Amino acid sequence: MSKDEEIYIVLIKALTGLGKCSRWLDAYEYTHIAVSLDKELKNFATFSRKQHFSPFCAGFMYEKREHYVFGKNKTVKMKVFKIPVSKEEKDRITNYINRIEKDEEYVFNLYSMLTMPFLHGIKIYKAHNCMSFVGKIIELSNVVQMKKESYRYNIKEMDALLVNYFYKEYDLTKEKDDKEYMRKVGILENIKWFLKLNSILIYRLLFKRKEHYE
């Protein structure tokens, strides 16, 4: 099968408070991961917060460069892997991303992210975080042999898994701010999003354990 197409797996040294905390705990600099289907690397599909100041208002989204370099920050460090795929594999990946984008049931898998260091993730019906989502994309690419389920790989492990496909590592320069993304969010609104997300995740853990997950 001819592999004339490519996708890009992008690791980001996130400049959020959570990202800085993760680097301190793990001694590993990259704390966010996304996939890009364009070689210009201007559009990134992932699961993440949809407002900078509201970590629980989160789910599938297309991130832009200004979501990574914001406020007083001038640059953000990124590491990129170029993954060769066939047209059929790229179509399968594109269709998977489009299907998730259109499915409003998908939510952010906060519990899998929090338990990754000691439980290596948790499956929850129609829930992803950035790691499990990109892990599934890597699985669909058929570019490497994955020795465990895709949702169980953390970012450092995916870095090692894709070592033969390293493309470049560089500092992305700030271009502009996204005013809506950087909108201040109050305590009450954050509490609302926290309660909503947790109620969905707990319900699915208790009552949808046998439902299909991907």
Summarize the structure.
With 214 residues, this protein is of the alpha+beta class. The protein has six helices and eight strands, in the order βαββββαβαβααβα.
Structural write-up:
The protein is built from six helices and eight strands; from the N terminus they run E-H-E-E-E-E-H-E-H-E-H-H-E-H. The protein is α+β, with helices and mostly antiparallel strands. It has one domain. Strands 2-1-5-8 form a four-stranded antiparallel beta sheet. Strands 3-4 form a two-stranded antiparallel sheet. The longest helix has 21 residues. The radius of gyration is 17 Å and the shape is globular. The model has no long low-confidence stretch (mean pLDDT 91).
Task: Identify the notable features of this structure and list them briefly.
214 residues; alpha+beta; four-stranded antiparallel beta sheet; two-stranded antiparallel ribbon; 6 helices
Query: What low-confidence regions span 5 or more consecutive residues with pLDDT below 50?
Result: none
What is the arithmetic mean of pLDDT? 91
Evaluate the radius of gyration: 17 Å
Number of domains: 1
Total DSSP helices: 6
Multimerization state? single chain
